[in-house]
Amino acid sequence: MLNSEQAIIARAVGGEASAFGLLYDYYQPRIYRFVLIKVGHREEAEDLTHQVFLHAWQHIGSYRHRGFPFSGWLYQIARNQIIDAYRTKKPNVPLHEMDLELFASGVSVEITTEARMELDRVHRAIRTLRPEHQDVIIMRFVEDLPIREVAASLGKSEGAIKLLQHRAMKELKNALGINE
Amino acid sequence: MELFTLLKKFQRIEPHGAYTEHSKSVILSMPRIEPEPTAWAEVIRLFGTRPVWMTATAMMIIVVGVGVFLNLSPNSTISSLDPVTLKAEADAIDIQIQLTNLTYNEPLRAGSGESTTPVAVPLKKEVREQAAALGLTSASSTNAGAPNVITVDEALDKLISE
Asked: Do the interacting molecules here have an ipTM over 0.85?
């Protein structure tokens, strides 16, 4: 969470573009990762991330702080954008033919070819999971978000998130052929 | 490599700097969409963000206004306490008191040996006979103001002497 985030959000809600710019700088990379891991295409992830923040900026006047982090609101918008994108445009490329482009040149640093192949394998396994399990895996184990924040973002109880996380990891290990 | 460690490596994914700058400038140049004001939001806007004393004043004005509208001024309230008016209102009230214990006494009145009336009648008859035997037959008329009235003491003396 940003330092004095509430004050920055209040300024952004009041229409101050520079305040929203600060929120954009802080949250855009993680929203981008969330979208990219779920959709698998860099350009599509860029378009969707742009739409997420455009929607957030245009509707920030109706944002109400209810004790949950601002990121929860952004994740909700991102999930809805992804659902809408898949609803209007069904992916017609088989998964094994997709170039995931997760680590395009100049984007990520110090990742060996071997590690990149391993990550591609994990990424493909994540994308075989149910959307809800994908969300929990990304938020909990990629972004290290606390359970409370994940629960707020997904609109579920903390107990439900713990259960979901357990099932998601079990399913991911099965997809990767890892014996527990 | 452990799965959790691998998942953490996804944090190295970052968007292109050029894309980020361009996207940000485009977004911030777009106009915001003002939320539609709802009725409740209007109430909150009017009262919720004002100081407490202003809200209290507004509420007071509403209450007094409603009172005037319903003709509930202080004078009309005091006039309702006028004794004459109260008496007239009290007279107008139809008070019906039911003596429920009458129902309780009803069986005694109609009963055979328990009532005081059947017991009193034979006693009165016996007393009359004794009085007649003692020459006190006019006792009942004594109460009517007859001059030959004897007192109880006299009657007792007469009885003892026999």
From this structure: no
